[in-house]
Specification:
There is one protein chain. The chain has two domains: 145 residues, HUPs (Rossmann fold); 85 residues, 2-Layer Sandwich (Pantoate--beta-alanine Ligase, Chain: A,domain 2), CATH 3.30.1300. The strands form two sheets. It has a five-stranded parallel β-sheet with strand order 3-2-1-4-5, with helices on both faces. The chain has a three-stranded antiparallel β-sheet with strand order 6-7-8, covered by helices on one side. The chain contains nine helices and eight strands. α7 links the parallel β4 and β5. 36% of the residues lie in helices and 21% in strands. Bound molecules: adenosine monophosphate. Adenosine monophosphate binds next to α1 and β4.
């Protein structure tokens, strides 16, 4: 029995959390490391994506991986391979800003599953839209979600944080501030307002979107929505950052 933890490497404590969750299942743990060009619509972002394979092997092994798998492009995408479609949710939010991104994600996940044949696979809530789309793939692989691992000050761990300067990192904290403040709001309308006004206090944060959505289909949430979540994306120093948080219903 095998559990797969798909990653793009530059491993951090967020990935370690996923690997530890996999370890707890008492199965063979495979960590895949592949920077998937199909899911990068921006060439510069792909080129600048941090890579640290030796350190990754160490981190994954310490966290409990039995195997660290570095697939080759040709193994995953043999000549004539077909790109899969991510469906309607693939065109919203992250998908609207990054056309083709989620098609690239579902295509690589489908191939990783086909080759590694895991029984289960672990994904982070950090990429909540991705998690929702992968669950909707309805593959035979059971998808297990792990909550977002954060730095001591709330910043969501991300391989991209390594590209921020010290002051950029300070600016990025506004994302968590906005999410945490919105969570305390007495109504969904006020939560929405707080989300946006908090983000606008930080001129260094270039907002892409901030919304409170229904976890089911990412339609805008209202007070009747059972499971709502605030989602934010934007750029700091040209680095794209995303985060999200469940909102309590009021
Ligand atoms: P990535 O290497 O960024 O493609 O991420 C690989 C997996 O790790 C995905 O399932 C992510 O959602 C998850 N992940 C990344 N950062 C975090 C985090 N801070 N907390 C929890 N999971 C994370």
């Amino acid at each position: 029995m095998t559990v797969l933890v798909p990653t793009m490497g530059a491993l951090h404590k967020g990935h370690q959390g996923l690997i530890k969750r996999a370890r707890a299942l008492d199965k063979d743990v495979i960590v895949s490391i592949f920077v998937n060009p199909l899911q990068f619509e921006n060439k510069e972002d792909l080129e600048k994506y941090p890579r640290s394979p030796e350190r990754d092997i160490e981190i994954a092994t310490i966290a409990g991986a039995n195997e660290v798998w570095f697939p080759e492009y040709e193994d995953l995408f043999p000549e004539g391979f077909k790109t899969l479609g991510a469906g309607a949710l693939g065109n919203l939010y992250e998908g609207a800003s990054r056309p083709g991104h989620f098609d690239g994600v579902v295509t690589v996940i489908d191939r990783l599953f086909a080759i590694a044949k895991p029984d289960q696979a672990i994904f982070g809530e950090k990429d909540f839209q991705q998690l929702t789309i992968i669950k909707a793939m309805n593959s035979k692989v059971e998808i297990i979600a792990v909550p977002t691992v954060r730095e001591f000050d709330g910043l969501a761990m991300s391989s991209r944080n390594a590209r921020l300067s010290e002051s950029g990192r300070d600016i990025a904290l506004v994302i968590h501030r906005a999410l945490a403040a919105a969570k305390l709001a007495p109504t969904i309308e006020i939560a929405h307002e707080i989300l946006n006004t908090t983000l606008s206090t930080e001129p260094g944060f270039d907002k892409d979107y901030a919304a409170i959505i229904d976890e089911k289909d990412f339609s805008l949430a209202d007070k009747k929505t059972e499971n709502r979540r605030a989602i934010i994306a934007g750029w700091v120093e040209g680095v794209r950052l995303i985060d999200n948080m469940p909102m309590v219903g009021r």
